[in-house]
Amino acid sequence: MVAMGPDELNDFLAAAFPDVELSARVTRADDEGVELTWPFHASQLRPGGTLSGPTLMTLADTVAYASVVSRIGPEFLTVTSHLAIDFLRKPPPADLRATGELLKVGRRQAVIAVRIYSTADDELVAYSTSTYALPSTPTVPRADRAEP
Amino acid sequence: MVAMGPDELNDFLAAAFPDVELSARVTRADDEGVELTWPFHASQLRPGGTLSGPTLMTLADTVAYASVVSRIGPEFLTVTSHLAIDFLRKPPPADLRATGELLKVGRRQAVIAVRIYSTADDELVAYSTSTYALPSTPTVPRADRAEP
Amino acid sequence: MVAMGPDELNDFLAAAFPDVELSARVTRADDEGVELTWPFHASQLRPGGTLSGPTLMTLADTVAYASVVSRIGPEFLTVTSHLAIDFLRKPPPADLRATGELLKVGRRQAVIAVRIYSTADDELVAYSTSTYALPSTPTVPRADRAEP
Amino acid sequence: MVAMGPDELNDFLAAAFPDVELSARVTRADDEGVELTWPFHASQLRPGGTLSGPTLMTLADTVAYASVVSRIGPEFLTVTSHLAIDFLRKPPPADLRATGELLKVGRRQAVIAVRIYSTADDELVAYSTSTYALPSTPTVPRADRAEP
Description:
The structure is a homotetramer. By secondary structure, chain A is α+β, with helices and mostly antiparallel strands. The first copy, chain A, has a single domain (about 5-135), classed as Roll (Thiol Ester Dehydrase, Chain A), CATH 3.10.129.10. Chain A has helices at about 5-15, 55-70, and strands at about 25-30, 35-40, 45, 50, 80-85, 95-105, 110-120, 125-135. In chain A, the strands form two sheets. Chain A has a six-stranded antiparallel beta sheet with strand order 1-2-6-7-8-5. A two-stranded antiparallel sheet of chain A has the order 3-4. In chain A, a hairpin with a 3-residue loop joins strand 1 (about 25-30) and strand 2 (about 35-40). Chains A and B meet through strand 3, helix 2 and strand 5 of A and strand 3, helix 2 and strand 5 of B.
């Protein structure tokens, strides 16, 4: 059972990162995790005409974050503890599609596997595993929560 | 013996990333690796008043890259193959200082260990290991370049 | 198209590691990768009655290796370049089941994702990504090759 | 300030792993971490005459573990949460020497950087970063122990 669906996630991500142009669009959020589209921008390019490592790393981190808050809700301020990424193929200048799979959601940590594909040919371009630390108590109370 | 010292590296990084505001300043480049300063910008902040994961990941990748080209020179187009980062402490909104240590420079790969410190208290805030793929032949020959 | 099926892989692994009791049994080998069973031994236990980290790491490395040689054949001497593993749940003292998925098989490297399950409850207990270096030329000639 | 020095650590490791021949010898334990020697055994070899990946991974995990218990003492049952290792050079059949450096010891986690050298030529053969989960309360109370 998810705490936040695609629309809620899109609103949440846009509000959480106001200073950064975040035009990612969450297209799926279910018990397994999330899927989102990451549009191409010229600023993502690096010498050689491929997308930069930081572009892919930022996407991987964002997808992992979206997967976690989709499951536990936005009240919890969760931070990345660890991230690892393998760059498999040089992605062409095109939109990216990424999936986040929740491998584990424990008391203290969530572990997420992320796959990043190029929409140009649907090839897997990067693969990432990350760990998010879960705080013990809610830190951002939901405004519309009616306490029983 | 390094192929590029601090001044050359600063020029090279500025030229390699023209679309991105890269105000990093290389302060050391020797046989062990490099050191650079990464100034604070408001865009680096994330909810909670700490520096974002992508900020630290981009810094780690840049330091690793600078370490490699400092050793092998700018003629080789090298790309990140793998990057892993541990976030140890939430860095306050201040400049960062990072060191890149070349653990291995082989025929095919270079492996780099990166340490990121906050200049606020000189505490270690993140730790990263990355692998860069080295192409077999130079891609931008120096001899052919006509200097403006 | 695989170069080695389950029976060939079992024979190959037994021959490759004669000094170590390797009673792993490959049950699947196809285009995606392999699956194998890793029987429980008392020597795998660590304080607390759970399976040790080295047990799981050895299994992850073996599965990755089996995935690679299943695809490229036994003529190539391939070595682990990098391995990362997340321990998700403490596995009870029972047989393990593991899958290896080939994310990429390039000219120089293969990248493999491994999932380890406990057969006690079919729960995912560990998750690993590894990179194997592929040498450029065959190093172990096949018996039926006519030497020039 | 360390909770366990080299002699205590050697006794502790021998007692913790009775079923495994652990002839590692801790030679240093201080505020930074530990150092230990890992003797060569024929069982560590893999095809090609080099030490196997699992040998190095087991050593990395043991050094990380020793670093943690040296700092927090043996009362806490700590388990590996994550381990990553880069294999830099093929180690010859000789003793290994390893250092564990505590990057962070927090409330929930400890992060350790491990360097493994071959005593044949003092070259760095592998590099590992691992994370150990620290339980909130002691599991083996010292007070109940009858001191000899």
